[in-house]
C-alpha cells in the first residue's frame, strides 16, 4: 500500500521588527489555545485552535528555514543559528537574524518599512480532533515544521487550508449522516406508533 503524502498547511500571523540596527525580526508562528476563524460555510463559522502541547519533543523541527512566500531563497535557518524557535505561554515564537547576507538585509528592509507585514509557517499535522458544538478543529500534535516565511499576502483560506478543510468536511459529513440516521429512527418510531393505534 503506498504511503499517504501529508499535505502541508500554512497559516499567517503578524510579523514584528523590534530594532532596526540589529536586523532582527520577531513574531509568533502560531498562538496556543486561541481559536481563530478558518472559514465560513453556509453561515456557519469554522475555527481552528493549536493546543499548548501540540509542539513537543516528537515534533520534527530539524533545520527549519526562513523564506519569503515559502519558496526560493533562504534568508535564515536553524542550523547556522540565524533562526530560533521557542515556545512560551502565548505560542511558538520566531526570532530571525537577517544580518548575514545582503539579500537577508534587503528582506529586513522590506519588513521594517511595512512592505511585508505578515509571517506564515508551513507544517503537517499528526493529531487533531473536532468539537461539533463549537465547530472547532483542535490541532493536538504537529508532526513537522518546514519553514517560517515572511509573506506578501496572508494565507488565502480557499487555497492554503486544504488539509484542515478536508478534515472538517469529513466531520461535517459525519454530522449529516448522524442527523439523517436519527431522523430515520424517529420516522420509524412514529410509523410504528401510528400502526399500533
The first-to-last residue Cα distance is 56 Å
Uncertain parts = 1-5, 156-165
User: What structural class do the secondary elements suggest?
Assistant: alpha+beta
**Main beta sheet strand tally, sense and closure:** 10 strands, mixed
Assembly state here? single chain
Strand content: 35-45%
Report the strand count: 10
The helix-strand sequence is EEEEEEEEHEEHH
Q: What form results from the Cα inertia axes? A: elongated
| Integer average pLDDT | 80
Structural domain count: 1
Give an account of the 3D structure.
- It is a single chain.
- The chain has 197 residues and is an alpha+beta fold.
- Helices cover 25% and strands 42% of the residues.
- It is built from 3 helices and 10 strands.
- Strands 1, 2, 3, 4, 5, 6, 7, 8, 9 and 10 form a 10-stranded mixed beta sheet that branches.
- Strand 5 (65-68) and strand 6 form a beta hairpin.
- The longest helix has 35 residues, at 162-196.
- It is elongated.
Amino acid at each position: 500500500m503506498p504511503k499517504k503524502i501529508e499535505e502541508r498547511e500554512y497559516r499567517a500571523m503578524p510579523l514584528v521588527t523590534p530594532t532596526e540596527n540589529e536586523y532582527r525580526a520577531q513574531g509568533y508562528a502560531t498562538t496556543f489555545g486561541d481559536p481563530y476563524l478558518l472559514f465560513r460555510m453556509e453561515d456557519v463559522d469554522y475555527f481552528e485552535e493549536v493546543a499548548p502541547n501540540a509542539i513537543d519533543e516528537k515534533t520534527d523541527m530539524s533545520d527549519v528555514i526562513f523564506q519569503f512566500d515559502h519558496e526560493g531563497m533562504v534568508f535564515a535557518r536553524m542550523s547556522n543559528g540565524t533562526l530560533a524557535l521557542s515556545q512560551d505561554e502565548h505560542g511558538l515564537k520566531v526570532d530571525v537574524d537577517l544580518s548575514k547576507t545582503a539579500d537577508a538585509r534587503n528582506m529586513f528592509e522590506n519588513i521594517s518599512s511595512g512592505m511585508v507585514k505578515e509571517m506564515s509557517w508551513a507544517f503537517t499535522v499528526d493529531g487533531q480532533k473536532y468539537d461539533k458544538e463549537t465547530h472547532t478543529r483542535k490541532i493536538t500534535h504537529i508532526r513537522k515544521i518546514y519553514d517560517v516565511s515572511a509573506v506578501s499576502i496572508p494565507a488565502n483560506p480557499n487555497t492554503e487550508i486544504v488539509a484542515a478543510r478536508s478534515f472538517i468536511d469529513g466531520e461535517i459529513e459525519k454530522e449529516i449522516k448522524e442527523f439523517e440516521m436519527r431522523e430515520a429512527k424517529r420516522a420509524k418510531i412514529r410509523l410504528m406508533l401510528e400502526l399500533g393505534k
